[in-house]
Amino acid sequence: MPILGEFDLIERFFAPLATAPGAFALKDDAAIVAPAPGFDLVVTTDTIVAGIDFFADDPPDAIARKALRVNLSDLAAKGAAPFGYLLALSLPGSDADWLAAFANGLRQDQAQFGCTLYGGDISSTPGPLTVSITAFGQAEAGKMLRRGGACEGDLVFVTGTIGDSGAGLLLLKNATQELDEGFRGFLIGRYRVPEPPVAFGPRLAGLASAALDVSDGLLADLAHLAAASEVHVVVEAERVPLSDAVRALWGDGAVARAVVAGDDYQIAFAAPVEKEDEILQAAAQSGTRATRIGHVQRGMGVAMRDSNGRDLTPLTKGFSHF
User: Fold this and answer.
1) Which of 107, 140, 112 is nearest to 15 (CA)?
2) Which one of 38, 108, 138, 165 is most buried, by most CB atoms within 10 A?
3) Does residue 260 contact residue 314 with C-beta atoms inside 8 Å?
């Protein structure tokens, strides 16, 4: 395909993704975005940058899907169902084949998660490829989940398995690392295209007392929840859910490495003891794995303990951009 100009590529690749009436087929300067009656509009933004959050030579469709899914993860952790998004692209070039694959990745995830493009912006840059998405979701009025709200006596849960994405990144950086090819493909796939529990999020509203998505590392993000709630979170190391692939890669040190790996895009949350059965039922109904990993007590901060109740020192503090 030839190189296209800005307006040609918008019309060719992105206008077909803008199917909501308020998007006006990307032919206006703004869009109209509104939740359904009885729901609050929930908005989140995340940016991913080549060389920081993905590799510049990753498949274009995988880059697109990761950019969208890291935002859908935030919405899910707030108890919101996604319905739309804005896209801002800073491109080192305008290769039509690359853009066609990128747009196809968005198309796949729009179909899977029930959302549509409302607008955005495209610009050229001499720097790395940058993808920014602002996602729109809706939560029942007054029921959006917050980081604050966990109480002494609550149980602590996490969805999915922890450490898969971080392990995948390690494998991409170290191609000589020995591992079963099936496990290798699984872990690299989780790094390139996360699997946030989008269907579970809205079911969690009304059950959890506090929640957030796991992006910086399980312990680091639970520390954020603890700080916002002014409580102390205790994680039981033997309860942290790990995939067989992570166990095969990291062996006896798997838990210690997984809880600080980051990029999981799962939901960590606290909930009253009496809500546990409802939570597990809601998880099963949405095809989500939810695991109780600890509890909340009086105090501040987060700690991980072994089966003998001894505190374990984390390997790192988790991911931070600065």
Assistant:
1) 107
2) 165
3) yes
DSSP per position, 80-94: -EEEEEEEEEEES--
In angstroms, the CA 68 to CA 17 distance is: 13
Sheet containing 232-236: give its strands across: 210-214, 266-271, 155-159, 290-297, 232-236, 301-305, 311-312
HSE toward the beta carbon, residue 183, CA cutoff 13 A: 18
Indicate the SS3 state at residue 321. coil
Closest CA to 64 of 110, 9, 3: 110
Report CA-CA distances (Å) from 180 to 88, 166, 176, 186.
Answer: 38, 17, 12, 10
Beta strands across the sheet bearing 130-140: 39-49, 130-140, 81-91, 116-124
8 Å CB contact between 190 and 168: yes
The tokens for 220 are 């680091």
What sign does the CA torsion over 200, 202, 203, 205 have?
positive
